[in-house]
Amino acid sequence: MVSSNGGSSPFLESPVHASPKMSPQTDRQVMSLQYKLNTVQNEFEIEKLRLQQQSNLLDKKYRNVVEELEKALDDTKYLYETNGRLEQELSDLKNSSNQNDDTRDEELRRLRSELRAKDYRIDELESNYQSKLSKLERKLENNQVESQSSQTLLKRYEEEISKQSGQIKMLQRANSEKDDELATLKASNVVTQHHNYSTEDLQELTVTNKMLQDQLQYSKELEEANMQQAGELKRLRMTSESQNFWKSENEKLQNKVEQLNLLEKQFQDSQLENVQLKSQIASWGLYTDGKQSPEDIVRDWTLTKKECIVLNDENKKIRFDLMNLKNLNDELAHERNQLLELNKNYEANIINLKKLNHEVEQQKQLSFEECRLLRIEMEELSKFSKDSNRDADAGYGSLVDSYKNQTEDLTGELKKLNDQLLAREPATKKRKASDQLGLNYSQRLNELQLENVSLSRELKKCQDTITILEDKIKNLTELKEKKIRILQLRDNPLLKDQFVKRKQLELLKKENADLLQFAQANNNGDKELESVPISVYESINFEIKQREEGLFRANKKFVRLKEVFNKKSLEFIDVVNSLLGFRLEFQQDGKVKIISCFKPERSLVVDLNQNTLKSNLDRDIEDWESLLQLWVDQRGQIPCFLATITLKLWEESA
């Protein structure tokens, strides 16, 4: 009988009289089950063939793996020696890194202490400079006030002295005249001493005497005034000497002020050197990933050191595992050699037994042939002499029985050999299991070799890191010994910012001084001046220039960003055009124009604000409305709609 679906399997044949009540669903289930059964049978046959092929391949691979295992033993020995050598190098590097760590820590501590001492010295010099400068300014102001007062007093005394000297000269002339008159009077008195004087003459003489006494008193007063003026003049001379002394002191103070200016320049130079040191510290970022300081480098170095210690421990563990693996590999090799010897013995025994079995079979056939011949001879002899040869027949019968017993013994031995061969099959299975174990050990050995290679690479990376850190430490130690000239850009932002700040500070100082003078002039003058100092204009002009430069930089940055944005937008449009087959044009009011690469003259306009779609592709695509209704209105899949349009246009262009 043939099945309903034409199959040949006897299990799927329908009965002769099918039930009229069988539903179509049952038929479909029967057909599906029949199809599944055929599929399973085919898969079973295929899997059976594949397993046979795999068994053959595994048998070949076993021999290859045995050879690879021997090679792996040699490689393991080489890796063990290499590992020992690398471990020795790692210990040497560890010792050298510890020594370098100690020296670098000492050098860093020394540099930090020197930096703190220099900072403290700079602060101390700055404070001393400020205090000395304030004291000298106060002394200079006091000396200027005293000098001005002494000059005015000196002028007044000089005028008084000139006036008094004129009066003294006049009084001296009057005194000389009076002396002449006294001399004449004395002479006349000698002539007329014996004459009698009249009352008028006496009165005149008394008046003259009184006048002379008054003049004498006045001359005494003038002498006292002259003495006072001489004392005052002496005091003025002393004042002049003190003024000269203060002038010399002022010159000394001016020299000190110049020295302080030099100190200020030195302080500015030290500040500039400090800035250079900061820039040198900032230049550490060139040797690192980010903005790192020497502390960060030390921290990274300590982390690397810890990682190196961890790797050393892992290396020791791997070495211990490698030793265990080596011992296990030696044991497996010894067991493998024993198994190979047993296999050779078993194969030799099997060959000998096969030879013996063949010989036994030959002897069996010969014995059967001899028995047949003897029976023929016995039948012939029985015809001639039945009575006389009964004893011979009995001998022949016993001989036949002996042959039968020998054949039975040989068949028993053959069965025993077959049983022994069957008993040896588990041993072969065990050998295959041991071979699989050797394969697993060889795979584990390959994995350990790969891990050893990766560890050697990590060790090399650690060595490179240690050399880089040693170079950095050497550069740090040589930083104090010689000045490092850092190659800076022409438009260095740090120096430019410092220059701008210094220029702005100078302009502000100048503006402050000019405004103070301007305020003093306005306070002293009667009229208010309708002008400002030129330093105010220069300061405002400098600030305007700085803002213009900032605006120029901002505009330049904006133009550059705009160019980058346009470039990236074009790249995005090109990528969309090359991948999706459409070119996008973003228009105003949230509209996007989509142009197909197959019909550049046609386009779709999507209004994202109003959720509308306009196109002139309905002339080129016949079922435009149906596609729009299906993909957009019903399913809401605009990408599928665009993909369908692309396929339609491609078909038309092709």
Automatic annotation (TrEMBL):
**Predominant cellular place of this UniProt entry's protein:** nucleus
Keyword Coiled coil assigned? yes
Q: Which GO terms describe its biological process?
A: activation of mitotic cell cycle spindle assembly checkpoint; attachment of mitotic spindle microtubules to kinetochore; cell division; mitotic DNA integrity checkpoint signaling; mitotic spindle assembly checkpoint signaling; negative regulation of protein import into nucleus during spindle assembly checkpoint; nucleocytoplasmic transport
Start and end residues of each stretch annotated as Disordered: 1-27
A Pfam family (short name) is: MAD
Instruction: State the Gene3D superfamilies in the record.
Output: 3.30.457.60
* GO cellular component terms, A-Z: kinetochore; mitotic spindle; nuclear envelope
Q: Where in the cell is it found?
A: Nucleus
Q: What UniProt keywords are attached to this protein's entry?
A: Cell cycle, Cell division, Coiled coil, Mitosis, Nucleus
Question: Which InterPro entries does UniProt cross-reference here?
Answer: Mad1
**Protein name in the entry:** Spindle assembly checkpoint component MAD1
Q: Which organism is it from?
A: Zygosaccharomyces rouxii
